[in-house]
Design brief:
Length: 123
């Protein structure tokens, strides 16, 4: 709940149980906008150092599915380092705008998300 709203366009996060949640978000790429409901599940976990999340979602005319893998390790000066890898597949109207536009938008959104997470955790 503390960092769930950090994703650009996230309107709300519903916790279903300790491994599953649903994200409601408005996403736009270029002039095309869609409101997604994405079901996310933590499918693997080795607390507190490792987790894998998998998600699928739909919006009118578009769909998304993907996974994210996160590994935490000790960093310099007592900091925590998070290595993060994700794979996302977009289908439908949003995918029709072209891979170059999607990639640039995704990189911008990822940067905004991690800036927000960092600020909330340091507060």
């Amino acid at each position: 709940q503390k960092v769930g709203g950090c994703g650009p366009g996230v309107e709300r996060v519903e916790v279903i149980d300790d491994k599953r949640f649903r994200i409601h978000a408005k996403v736009g790429i270029g002039l095309i906008r869609a409101t997604f409901a994405v079901d996310v599940e933590r499918t693997e976990e080795q607390a507190p150092d490792f987790a894998v999340l998998r998600g699928t979602g739909k919006a009118p005319g578009s769909a998304v599915d993907g996974s994210a893998e996160m590994t935490l390790s000790d960093g310099p000066d007592g900091a925590t380092v998070m290595d993060w890898r994700t794979e996302v597949h977009i289908h439908g109207k949003l995918a029709s705008v072209g891979a170059r536009l999607i990639e640039g938008t995704a990189k911008k959104m990822i940067g905004q998300t991690f800036d927000c997470v960092r600020a909330k955790l340091e507060a």
